[in-house]
Amino acid sequence: MMNKAKVLIVEDDPEIARLTTMYLEAEGYDLEVVHDGSLALEAIRTFNPDLILLDLMLPGLCGSQICRQAREFYNGMILVQTATDDEMSEVSLFKFGADDYVTKPVRGHVLLARIEALLRRAKPTAVTPTPTITSTSNGIEIDPATQAATLNGRCLNLTSAEFEILNLLVANTSDVVTREQCCQLFRGIDYSFNDRSIDMRVSGLRRKLREHAKDKQFIRTIRNKGYMLVA
Fold first, then answer.
1. pTM for this one?
2. Between vectors from CA 201 to CA 200 and to CA 206, what angle results, nearest 5°?
3. Last residue of a domain, which of 91, 122, 153?
4. Structure confidence by residue, pLDDT tens digits, 151-161
């Protein structure tokens, strides 16, 4: 079986780690397992995974701290496992830089489907000519080939989801982009991002744009419709 993507499992429960490893090994993933949060950041740097499967409650360093600190240097996918279904947890996870989350206990086939969907988002689906860098009149520059975005020459450090939304907004500058159009970016299996999930990602994108241009509003909310990137 050909090796698939590299997945780093950060989980302190031995049984959950064992079962997760079993599921992913059966699919051919290249795996590394870390049981202590204090070892996670170094493992991310050395293993350089395509996806991190991250537990929230960990000894040493909690999952939210790992997620936030990892986003300073890691641009891959982060899928968080949480034991709660608290809406505030969802809000916090997106702010920390998670791409998606699942609530424990999660069935093996559901976990695999989520991982596959995230990895599909991270990689091009077909061989296409190298995308060109797009610049806007308001100083935003996006590079689809590297999924990097800058504002006035300063890196925005976007998550994958934030980059895809910004890319869509830039492609439709001065036109309304509906929440449904945003949701379509992330559909790949039997669940879909809802309006609230999109709002949280747009909120994170707005916050990062404001950090480099505090007095300028780049993204306007169009009531009952969606969002618009201001020219």
1. 0.59
2. 95
3. 122
4. 888 888 888 88
